[in-house]
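[step 3/7] fold_predict: job queued, chain A
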Amino acid sequence: MRVVSLVPSLTEAVAVSRPGVLVGATDWCTHPADLDVVRVGGTKNPKADRIVALAPDLVVANEEENRTPDLDALRAAGVEVLVTEVRDVPQAFRELARVLDACGVTARPRWLDEVEAAWSSLPAPQGRTTAVVPIWRRPWMVLGRDTFAGDVLSRLGVDHLYADHAERYPRIPLEELRAAAPDVVVLPDEPYRFTAVDGPEAFPGLPCALVSGRHLTWYGPSLAEAPRVLGEALRAARR
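[step 4/7] structure written:
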């Protein structure tokens, strides 16, 4: 079987579960670090001709990471496309199982058991923390309603202040974000790479947690260590 992945977290999940099945992945697919496949462009601008030339049996994609016109172009070329939708942690488990099954993984991988165990045994949060979670600047955008990352944070005791916004990724003026006065500003390193300077300097006087985007937004093997990694970053920011 030949598979192309257009989603970094799915690339990792498929690669470690059935080595050798992937023949193509995006430029942003960084895990596993030794992945040696044809690169087919970005998640938002994949090169359809390069993908078709690989003659994949399946392309795995995601409804918010990848654009419908690109996926439709692949289907029009006769390529089968599986599109995932992940809005919370339990749905991530179901979609991962669906993708692995479609990729011919016959035995449930140990890492998936470890991921589910890590989240099912999560202790109840000791109190709740409010947050804003920028995911872009120029313009400033934050987590809004119905997002996987928002559910991850909620399970760790973090309530982001725009969870009830009408949009999933609303544009909010920086002045409004500052005025919201959250307990912590959560700054992931993807999709926008916030750094120790590019982020905290915009929120003077507010605790800022620099967190791994791979642990906040990816659904795959990294989910097993996400509670620990994110928890440590959040606690360090509020000390």
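[step 5/7] annotate
The longest strand covers residues 58-62.
The two ends are 50 Å apart (CA to CA).
exit 0
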